[in-house]
Specification:
Layout: E1 5-9, H1 17-31, H2 41-60, H3 66-70, H4 72-80, H5 86-101, H6 110-119, E2 123-128, H7 132-142, E3 150-153, H8 154-157, H9 164-173, E4 181-185, H10 188-198, E5 201-205, E6 218-220, H11 225-229
Parallel strand pairs: 1-2, 1-4, 2-3, 4-5, 5-6
Helix pairs in contact: 1-5, 2-4, 4-5, 5-7
Length: 230
């Protein structure tokens, strides 16, 4: 296929959200002395993750407002450990979004692959459901911004991946044809299902080789595989 336009997800696809998140949360765990409420950081993180994932899922489908994710994920986690204080949760949430966006770890081979794609004259874009106040900072701090012509954030569009309106907006905004466009992302639901249902070819980035039954156009375990294919 003669692709011209490549639409990359940001978190977990090129920006290493997991590593950056762990670093930030560990710092805040100590700063807020959460050891008084949780056995240790691992105990906190194990309780936090399912709460966070559940709220993000609801937010992406428009069931809850942004604040319910940003603050609610921490308030509900703290509440499970006996800390019922909304003001602390709000401050923690602000500190997390700010601190996390300053981290600079990227997925292995990110810059090697982006350099290659730019040399090949592909048009590169970011498509993300992340918070507006964090995504641009992440890209600037980690050196990603110069590679991408435009960043599409769900808050700005008024629709989140996997909704058709998100992908339609991104495609139309850069005057791209579907047949010339490719979506690369790590989420089977948000990136792959969304792209497939809108009629776009897609690459599922699955670095852990997690088993699944989803029908995908192409699957890779390393970003470097894109260099052998595009």
């Amino acid at each position: 296929m003669a692709y011209k336009h490549l639409f990359f997800d940001l978190d977990h696809t090129i920006w290493d959200f997991h590593t950056n998140q762990i670093i930030t949360l560990r710092q805040l765990f100590e700063q807020y002395k959460l050891g008084k409420y949780f056995r240790d950081f691992d105990d906190f993180f194990e309780q936090y993750m399912p709460v966070n994932l559940g709220l993000w899922h609801d937010y992406q489908y428009g069931r809850i407002p942004k604040r319910d994710v940003k603050v609610g994920r921490f308030y509900k986690t703290f509440l499970q450990a006996g800390l019922d204080d909304m003001k602390i949760a709000e401050k923690f949430a602000d500190d997390f979004v700010h601190g996390n966006s300053l981290q600079t770890n990227v997925i292995p081979h990110t810059f090697e692959v982006l350099d290659y794609l730019k040399r090949k004259k592909y048009h590169l874009y970011i498509i993300t459901n992340g918070f507006r106040e964090a995504q641009h900072t992440k890209m600037e701090r980690s050196g990603l911004t110069p590679y991408f012509e435009k960043t599409f954030i769900s808050e700005d569009i008024g629709a989140s991946k996997p909704h058709r309106r998100f992908f339609e907006h991104a495609i139309k905004s850069v005057n791209a044809k579907k047949t010339e466009s490719l979506v690369i992302g790590d989420s089977l639901e948000n990136d792959i299902k969304g792209a497939r249902e809108f009629g776009l070819d897609h690459v599922f980035f699955n670095p852990e080789g997690t088993p699944h039954k989803e029908k995908v156009f192409k699957e890779i375990n390393s970003l470097k595989e894109l260099m052998n294919w595009l």
